[in-house]
Design a protein that fits this description.
Two copies of one chain form a homodimer. The first copy, chain A, is α/β, with parallel strands linked by helices. Chain A has eleven helices and ten strands.
Chain lengths: 272, 272
């Protein structure tokens, strides 16, 4: 089959964090059909090697192709950092949108004079993808970065505010924001982190602008679909969810990230 | 090949937490050769379904069989809870030692009048394996349990003491230890947790006895090898390590759990 206007947008993440990107796409493009795959059996990707993440991402893309998708969103910073070239090669001519380039563009646009700080997973920090993407747009931009792995556990436990979340945020942000000159923008470089936005903003203070790539990824999806003449006039089909393990847990915890209830009956178990 | 005295003991965990069990076995049985497999590509197991954990555990056991092991230690509470019967069936007549039964026996022996509290991963708590194992030994024993997922992240980040670790411990232990009558024993039902022992003891207070299944699992390994006449008179071969992803990270973080340095050159990458 060849994808058409009514074909769904495929969205892929290691787990549930990418649902923050799905939520942004739903707000911006309410007429699009969406199919989301969370590789919950093998999460987290953030501590894995780039080779392993690439292999897993290609398998996930293969599973989404069976839904005749018209565009793939890699709603995972770690997978965007490691696997975007391999995914584009495998899926061509199907467009593939990652979250790193939109996040970098949003950061440069929000604080053009910089400096920019980035918090992300270990894997994303190690690969330096945000530093490269930001400096591709603004070569002299100072960028500092640090991993914030406990944010993932806090987000998944719904522990998004209160003294523990604030203490963890202070631990990660303190050294990063104490660099001189002080960063004016802070990229939330993991799709789990937007649910901690209020706590991160409180700890970072009012002079630091938070940049969440979910919104700008949704803008990029709209641009690409417009370019290709593939925007769906609607009405959309109901969203579909796929998980590689524990679909009940996916439906339950996914609400934290999607910001609306997920019908457990709409979550199918798939093996990659 | 048939295993003999010089054959290694195989030790398996989802990641690095099982190294606390390996450390206990090394202290108790310094003449034994040990080969450790951490399924770092697919950790954590604690949030996965029992079926998926069982499938992964059987694959890991298969990889260790290639080293002609004489006994398998399942140094992971989640895998012990989900996969022990399937592993025993696959490996028979090779003995398989899990960590749940030794932990339950140690708890009943330490606080025979109870009550006993258990902290573990989501998967171990959901399956109720500790409750069953404790009540198999002491049918009227009151047991309360709760998941403590953030402890895994704290342990892996080496954040084992200080205000964040104490606040997280208070969050998990408070409701559990406030049950009436107050628990007198606390089982650390995840092999990640012993590295947080000092913080957990401080928060639990002096009237609560901590039970760590690593030591009692090592005692059980010694008993089984003695029964079978398979104790190695020594000297032992150097320990071997296998990881399914990121062997460098395994060597680096593994030190926290093993309590001694791991030579990165001794960690081999395996695919399951």
């Amino acid at each position: 089959m060849t994808p058409d206007l009514n074909s769904p947008i495929g969205i892929f993440d290691s787990g549930m964090g990418g649902l923050t990107v799905m939520a942004a796409i739903r707000r911006r493009l309410p007429d699009e059909a969406l199919v989301y795959l969370g590789d919950t059996a093998r999460l987290p990707y953030g501590t894995k090697s780039a080779d392993t993440v690439t292999r897993y991402a290609l398998q996930a893309a293969g599973a989404l192709l069976r839904f005749d998708i018209k565009l793939l969103v890699v709603a995972c910073n770690t997978a965007s950092a490691a696997a975007l070239p391999a995914l584009r090669e495998m899926l061509a001519p199907l467009p593939v949108v990652g979250v790193i380039e939109p996040g970098a563009a949003a950061a440069v646009s929000a604080v053009p004079a910089g400096p920019i700080a980035v918090i992300a997973t270990e894997g994303t920090v190690r690969g330096g993808a945000y530093v490269q993407a930001i400096q591709a747009l603004s070569p002299a931009m100072p960028v500092v970065q640090a991993p914030a792995p406990l944010f993932v556990g806090l987000a998944e436990e719904g522990l998004t505010g209160g003294p523990i979340a604030e203490a963890v945020a202070a631990r990660y942000l303190g050294p990063l924001l104490d660099t001189v000159p002080r960063p004016r923008g802070l990229v939330l470089g993991c799709t789990h982190f937007p649910v901690l936005k209020d706590t991160i903003a409180k700890v970072a203070g009012p002079d630091v602008t938070l940049i969440d790539s979910a919104e700008t990824a949704a803008v990029r999806v709209e641009e690409v679909l417009k370019e290709k003449g593939l925007l769906n006039p609607g009405p959309p089909a109901a969203p579909k969810f796929l998980a590689t393990d524990a679909p009940g847990r996916f439906a339950h915890l996914g609400e934290i990230f999607l910001g609306e209830p997920i019908d457990p009956g709409a979550v199918a178990l798939v093996d990659l």
